[in-house]
């Protein structure tokens, strides 16, 4: 390791004088009486790989379509690269989109699909072929230049769609569920390919997805959405480790939720009274909770330890019965029923052979977690 | 595997015989040497030669062809536009009325359509001729085009058009370079349908034609009333030949287009 030049971490959102590429200022979109997007404030910076994540109908696609120019906001302004986009149609924006259905033109060859946008740009005719070849190389489809889309596999078509959207070197590339149509293995390979291409071209990517794993893998920042609102905008690790609401915690990954009332708030620490006669749970305090509030304790299953003997050195420890064991190969998830009926999941790595595993169905076990493992969030 | 039983074979033979024996007889008698239609006097192609020298028939054929080409082209343009509005505009004020009015000529008796057009042309003082037949044919065949094209439009992936806009197309450019090439098979079959309808229309043409513009069906009909001549047989044989070729071409192209579309959908699904 070279000690003199530590690589700068890419985090423009932490720099006060960084200039955002996209600025959504109080954007609201209504379809009749239905509010699809409710007063959203969002900044996306150049070279970011930004993910809009949420269940279907949360408004993520509407945001994307407004950035592309297919929809106009009812209220508020969208600024891209310093220019107000109000009234600028889709064909006049330095924004390109990769469609969920790929929308490849079936009557044109791969090369003609890639040249389609270039022919409608100021690029001189003589340079178009060179640019098309460059894009074909980027997505490794040089051999398929003269094929029609229906002669390609799903993965190849996905790459043609990506290359076509990138051909005009847009300032912003929008990807609508780009990997939704691929099978799991191909999807994982393609995620890394996408990140690679994003880095190579230096384009700002905004991806819309409902797959939290995909968002976690590719994105520099994630916006978790629900019912037209942004629930949390943060880096993947912040979203996972310190969600700001039960909704976000529950949406991203697996989580245990124990409800109760706040009994103590002391700076970053808080305690939650969750069952009659049980010891309060000690955890990190989330934003905006105060004593006697209804609140929920959230903790990831992998942060809950499982043991057959009482870990008396831990404050947070509860006893229960193993109800179910989900064997996932590299790890197992234990579903443990506590005395008051709450179900808590604990995950443990299977670093021993299955025959040596000490815990089985209907065993009485102890679950424990550290004081900083979970969060107490307002409900 | 199903086999041809004697019952199936007989049914098929009877069905085809019922449909095609009259036509076959007509074709055979067009090569008759005799002037009498019902007496066979040896093979001859003289009636075809005579037909080519009959100016009245040739004129009528030329008028018919002209009317069919022009009217089916107008009908295709208007019908495609109507299909676009019906499929794309969603719900707008008067949509039900509009679609009802487009499809009305499908069920309207031809006599009524012809008569009302005749009254219109008289009322506005339009002299009847090729132009009025073209207008009349375009009017009634437009709905057929619209039906064919709108069924294709309904399955058209609109994101293709959005992709075209996204890549810098204006509205017209997107239609011309993306939408039209994709729906072309439907537009072409619509045109062929309109062409065929115009080619064999007798009723509407007889209401809207003038003295100077007789179409072939009118000519045939009026000369048959004076007795069937072998020339008519020869002419009919030529028309049957042309229509058969047209139908074959249309069905082969549309079958290919459908097969291609199926293949694309299969690939898209995989």
Helix/strand structural class of chain A: alpha+beta
What is the overall shape of chain A? elongated
Bin the strand percentage of chain B.
under 5%
Total helical segments of chain A: 8
Radius of gyration of chain A (CA) equals 25 Å
How many beta-strand elements of chain A? 20
Highest-level CATH class of the largest domain in chain A? Alpha Beta
Largest sheet of chain A: 6 strands, mixed
- Order of strands in the sheet with most strands of chain A: 6-7-8-3-9-10
Name the CATH homologous superfamily of the domain at 53-226 in chain B: MetI-like
Highest CATH level, the class of the domain at 53-226 in chain B: Mainly Alpha
- Name the average pLDDT of chain A: 89
Largest interface: A-B, 30 and 23 residues
> Which sequence of SSEs, written as H and E, runs from N to C of chain B?
HHHHHHHHHHH
> Shape of chain B from CA axes?
globular
Number of domains of chain A: 2
Unreliable segments of 5+ consecutive residues of chain A: 1-6
Descriptive tags:
heterodimer; A: 379 residues; alpha+beta; Rossmann fold; OB fold (Dihydrolipoamide Acetyltransferase, E2P); 8 helices; 20 strands; elongated; B: 270 residues; mainly alpha; MetI-like fold; globular
Provide a descriptive summary of the structure in words.
The complex is a heterodimer of chains A (379) and B (270). Chain A has 379 residues and is of the alpha+beta class. Chain A has two domains: 12-241, Rossmann fold (3-Layer(aba) Sandwich); 255-378, Nucleic acid-binding proteins (OB fold (Dihydrolipoamide Acetyltransferase, E2P)), CATH 2.40.50. Chain A contains eight helices and 20 strands. Chain A has helices spanning 60-68, 110-119, 125-138, 154-166, 184-201, 212-218, 236-241, 246-251, and strands at 22-31, 34-44, 49-53, 75-80, 83-84, 95-98, 172-176, 204-209, 221-226, 229-234, 256-266, 269-273, 281-285, 294-299, 305-307, 316-327, 331-338, 343-349, 364-369, 375-378. In chain A, helix 2 (110-119) packs across helix 3 and helix 2 runs parallel beside helix 4 (154-166). Chain B has a domain at 53-226: MetI-like (MetI-like fold, Orthogonal Bundle). The interface between A and B is medium-sized, with 30 and 23 residues.
